[in-house]
Amino acid sequence: MNFLKISLSFCYLLWTLAGFAQLRMDSVKQLPVLEISTSRLAAFSSGNKTETLDSTLLNRYSTSNLADLLANESQVFIKSYGLGSLATTSFRGAGASHTAVLWNGFNLQSSMNGMLDLALVPANFLNDVKLQYGGAGALWGSGAVGGTIHLNNSNQFDKGISISATTSFGSFSDKQQQVSFEISKNRYVSTIQLFNHDAKNDFPFINTAQYNKPEQNQSNAELKQYGFLQENYFQITANQKLNTRFWYQYNDRNIPPSLTQNINVANQKDKTYRATTEWQRNSEKLILIARFAYFDEGLKFKDSLINENSKSRSKTAIAEAESRFSISKFDLINIGINNTYGEAEAADYLKNPSENRTALFGSYKIHSKKNTWNAVVSARQEFIKNKEIPLTSSVGIEGEFLKCFLIKGNVSKHYRLATFNDLYWIGIGAKGNPDLKPESGWAEEISLINKVHYKKIVWELSATVFNRIINNWIIWLPDQYNTWSPDNVLQVWSRGVEYKLNVNYSVREFKIQLSGLYNYILSTNEKSTTVADIAIGRQLIYTPVQNGQGSFSFSYRGTSISYTQVYTGYRYTSSDNRHYLNPYTVGNINIAQQVRLNKTKIKMFAQLNNVGQETYQVVAYRAMPLFSCQFGLTIFINQQDKKTKQ
Amino acid sequence: MKTKQLLKLGTLVLTMAFVSCKKDDPKTSEPTPVAGAYDNGVFITNEGPFGSGTGTVSFYNRSSSSVSNDIFEAKNNYPLGNIVQSMELFNGKGYIVVNNGSKVEIVDGSTFASSGVINGLSNPRYFLGIDNNKGYVSEWGASGTGAVKVVDLTTKTVTATITTGKGAEGMVKVGNTVYVACSGGFDNDSVVTVIDASSNTVITNITVGANPKNIKVDASGNIWVLCSGQWDLNYTTLVKTGKLVRINASNNTVELSIPFASTYSQPSSLVINNAKNILYYSYNGKVYSQFYTTLTLNPTATINRSFYGLGIDPTNDYFYASDAGNFSSDGKVIRYNAAGVVVDSFTVGIIPDNFCFK
Q: Which of A127, A333, A624, B261 is most buried, by CB atoms within 10 Å?
C-alpha cells in the first residue's frame, strides 16, 4: 500500500471531521501509530478498479442504509423494491448473488439465497465502504464475480472519550435515533453504537395500475429496526493486536403490495447476530493474521392471506489464517487458509443442509523500488466434499507513468457456488437440484486514470473497459412435468465502459467538488441449454445499459451543501427485451451546518430526496415516493485523555 | 507536456461521447388494436411475469388471422394486474380473473372497455356466470381453505361466501347445480363440492381423486373431473397418482374412476370438443384423448408434446396450445387441427395459460 496515500486520506478524514486547521498538525504527528491495513484488498488486489466511499461521504448518509448510499454515490445499480424494502445489487451487469459483500473481510452473502439485503445495513455502522469492481474469486472466493463490496470498521487509539447522539425526523413518519460511545486509550479502544429506526413509509402515489387510477397511500410498508455494534481493539504488545466485534440487528418490515396487487399483508422479521475477532502479529519479517466469525441469521415470514408462516435460520462459522512475508525488497507473499462451515434450517428443506468449504489461497506481489508499479498473481482452490470446484487465479498489474497517469489491468477467474435454495429447496411445484455445477468464467479489465494537480485544482478522470463471461449461469425453469427446478442454463457475456470524473478545488476552508460517472454496459445471454431460447443475444433483465451520476458539493467552514443527480437508463423486464421500464433521474440535496462549542460539536442536517418530483419505478410496478425530506441533529462530545494528550 | 495531456484527455472524452451517442431505446412493436374488433376470435390470458409484474390478454382474430397483444391496457390505459388467471364471457361482458391482484376486471366483450372491478376476493381462480344478476368466483383463499364467492353483477360486489373444499378451482353448471373441483390449493383435497345455485348452499361433497383441478360436462350431461394426484413430502413421487373421474350428475355419485399409472407425471389441462364427446388432457409430456363412453384410457397420444395451457375452439375443434418458453419472455400459441397437426403459431404475452373462445 502506498504509504503516502494512506497518510493523505487520513489527513483528509481528520480535517473534514474536525474542520479546523490546527487539528491537522496533531494528526500528522499521530501518523506513525496508524496501523498498516490488514486487508488483502489493500495489499493484494492489483489492476481492479476500486472506489472508496469515505467517512465524509458516509457521514452525509448517516441516517441512510447502504442501498441508498450506493444508489446515489456509486456506479453499482441498486435494484430496490421500494422505500426501506429489499434492495440488491447489480455490478457490471451481473446478478444479485454475483456481489460478494465482505464485512471486515468476512463474507455476508446468505448461504440460503446468495444475497445480502443492502437495505438492512445502516450506513452509520461503517467507517468506510470500498467497491472493488470485477472478478476477484482468487482473493475472496465464491460470489466475487461482478464485484465486491467491502464494509469496513476501523478505529484509532488515544482519542479519549467521545459521545455522539443523533436524532432525525423525516417524511412518512420516519424517526431515527443513534447513540455512540467510545473510550479510546493508549492501547485500548472500546466503542458501542446503537440505533433505532421507525417509519410508516406511507407515502402518497397515484396508482396508475388500477381502475380509475386512484391516489393511494402506500400500505403495509411499516418498518421497525434496531441494533447495536460493539467493537474492542487491543494493542496487546508492540507487535500484537486483537479486535472483537459484535453486531446485533433486528428488523421488522411489512411488505407493501405492488401497484398490480390490491393488497398485501405480509411481514418479514430478520434477526441477525454477527460476532468476529481478529488477531494480528506483526514482526519485521512476518505478519500473521487469524480471524474468526460466527453469524446466526433468522428470518420469519408471515402472510395471513395465504396462511403462510415460515421460519428459516442459517448459521455460518468462518475461520481464516494468513501469513505475509517477503523474500526480497521488491515482493510480498500471502499464504492463507479459510474454512467456512454453513448450515441452514427451513421447512422448505427436506433435511437441514450443511456445507463445509476449505480453501487455500496465495498471492505473490512484486513491486518497483518506489512502489509506483506492482503486479500480483493470486490463486485459490476451494474444496468441498464430492464437488468439483475450479482452481481460481488472477493476474493484475498497475503502475504510474508520465507522472499523471495510472494504468491498471487485471485478468481473473471467478466462480459462484450454488446456494442451499438452488440445491435443496423442496416445495409445491418447485424443487432444488443437488447436481448443480458452480457458475464460473473469466473477466478482464483495463483502466486508465489521469490525475492532475493544477494550482488548487485536483482533476481525476478514469476510464475502464471490461469484459466478462459467466458460464453455467443458474436459472429456475419448469421441467416437462411443470416442476420448477434450477439448472446450469446460460452463458452470459458482459462488457462495457465506465467513466468517472472528479474535480476538486480547495482554498483553505473553502472546498468545491464536482463529479460525474457514466457507464455503458451490455450484458447479454449468449448460449442456452434450452432449445430456441428467445433470450439469446438479449440484455439481461434489470441491468441498465446506461447509467450516470453527477454531483456537486460545496463546503466552507462548518457549512456543506451537496447535490447529486442520478440517471438510470432503460431496464428490460422480460428476457426477450420486449418489455421494459423507462429511464429515470432522481436528484437529492444534503445540507449540513456544524458549529463548535468548546468540546462539543453540533451538526444540523437536512436531506431532501427526489427534489425533481420524478415518478419512477426501479422494479416494475413498485411505487417510489415523490419528494421526501429528513431533518436531523447530531451532538458530538470529545474529551481528550489528559495523560496522553499531545 | 500539457498539449500531450490535453490530447489524451480529448481522446478519452471523445470515446465517451461516441459511446453515449449509441441509442439504447427499446423498440415498441405493439400495434394499437382497433376497438370493437374482438367479435370473432379467441382471447388468450397471459399470466405475466412473477413478482410484481402484470398479466395481459391477447386476442387472435379468426377472420383476419391477426393477433393483438395487451388489449386491456391499450384500451383502458392501465394494466390488468399481477397473474392473470382466466377469462370468461358472460352476457356480453368479459370477466378477467386476476389471481394475485385479488380481483376480477370486467370489460365489454367486444370493445374491451373497462366497466368496473370486483374486489374482496382472495386468490381468485375462475368466473362462472349463474344468471343475469349473479356470478360465482372460485378462490383458493388462505392455505387450507377454499370458497366460492357470490357476486352481484349489477353492483359488482361480493354478496356471499360459500365454503367449499380446499382450493376451489374449475367450475361447471348443470341445470341449476354448480360443481366445483377442489384442487387443494396450497394444501391437498379430493372433493368436488356441489352447490345449489338458487340458494347458494352446498348440497354435498363428492370424493373423487387427489387434488381435482379441471371439470367438464359431456354430451350426456355427466361431469368429468381430472385429479392431478398428490406428491410425497419431497415432491419426487406421486403417493396418489392422477385420476380421471366421471360423476353421474343425476345422482351425484362417481360412476367411473380411471387411475393414471405414472408416479411422477401429473395429468393436467382437461378440455372437451364442441360435440362434447371427446375429452383431451396433457399427461406425461403428451396430449391424449378420451371418448366419453370409453371406460379405459387411450394409450395413443393425439399430440406428442406437452403444453403450459390447452384450449379447444368450439367453432372448428382446433387445439390452442400455449408454450411459455423461458417463462420470462413473451410466449407462443400453437394451433393444431383436430387430428393433431400443426396449423400455425403466433406470439402472445408472458406465460400464456388460458383461452376464452368467442
A: A624
